[in-house]
Each structure stands twice: as C-alpha cells, then as structure tokens.
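Tokens for NADH-quinone oxidoreductase subunit A. Go.
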Amino acid sequence: MGSYLPVERIVEPSSTLGDLAFYTALVLGLVAVMLGLSALLGPRSRLTRAGAEPYESGIVSTGGARLRLSAKFYLVAMFFVIFDLEAVYVLAWGIAARETGWAGYVEIMVFLAILIAALVYLWRTGALDWAPKRQRPADRRY
C-alpha cells in the first residue's frame, strides 16, 4: 500500500475576506436586531426628580461624590498585577520546562532577575512605603 499524503486545501484570499465581511455583517445585524427589540419591547421609564436622585430610599444625599482614595489601594493593585503576571509566566515556564531546556531556564532567570532588581530599586527609593515614617518626639526634659 502506498503512503497517503494529506491534500492541502488552497484558500483564496478573496474568499476569506468575503467570509470575514459576511460574518461582520451578520454580527452587526444581530446586534442591531437585539438593540431594536429591547427598545421596542422593553419597559418605558419616566425619569422623575426623585428617580434621578442617587439613592431612591428617601435618604437625602450629603457630601460630594468625589472621594480621595489613599495611594495604598493603588499600591495593592500594582502588587497584585505584578505578582499575578509573574506567577502566570513562571507557571507557563514550569509546564514547558522540559521542552524549553536550558534556554528557557536562562530566560526565566533573566525575567526573575529583572523583576527582583525592580523590586529592590522601588524598595530602596521608598516607593513601597505605606505611609510616612513616624519620627519619635525628641526627649523633653523639664
């Protein structure tokens, strides 16, 4: 018996662009139909002065809506993003460690060294401080 080689299908670029245009038109048409049906069949709401208030529970709002958040929240978010991405890359490397060999090992070590160097730099410049350091009051002698 002879060997059977798979026959490759030659795809013309014009047919793929036509398919893409058809798919895009179909998606946009579906979105238009769904928005139109929700506008026609959805409930009508009449916005009153009481309904425009931020709280409809009868409590009169006090103060402004602009609140200043502490930079601590930003710092926690940045730590999460940095360490979450690091964990993703190290986990992906760990799964493919045998296939990548020494080249992959060197690459992940360079990646970790750059992250550690950045962390040390931020630590030494004080960017990771939660709050200004408290200074002890000078000894008062009476």
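The mean pLDDT is 80.
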